[in-house]
Input
Amino acid sequence: MDERKFAAQARRLVAQYSNKHNPDHMIEPDDVYIVWMCKTLQNSKALLSTPVPDTRYYEVTYNGNKGEAYLDVYVKEKNICFGYPLLRGDLQRQQGRGVPGRLRQGKEHLL
Output
């Protein structure tokens, strides 16, 4: 299946699922947007979302060997914010500043 056909099928599958589970927010396949898509050999995968406020996120996988498509549905559990000072501190630790000597020596340690 080429990329355009896969994208159209993935949008259709997500719209059908969303409409079945959100009858108050009916959508068309064109309302579904692809966040990321990849084709490797005969297989394809896409991450999709919709404008429906249900916090669902979708993954469609096409197995070209079997001619099968799989739909995975995820619901956001939490959104945790890590502010700039925290990230800046992590970067400083990665660069070896403010880190105990035993952690600085091994390259496998990133903290």
Remarks:
- The chain has three helices and four strands.
- The beta strands are 33-40, 43-49, 56-63, 68-75.
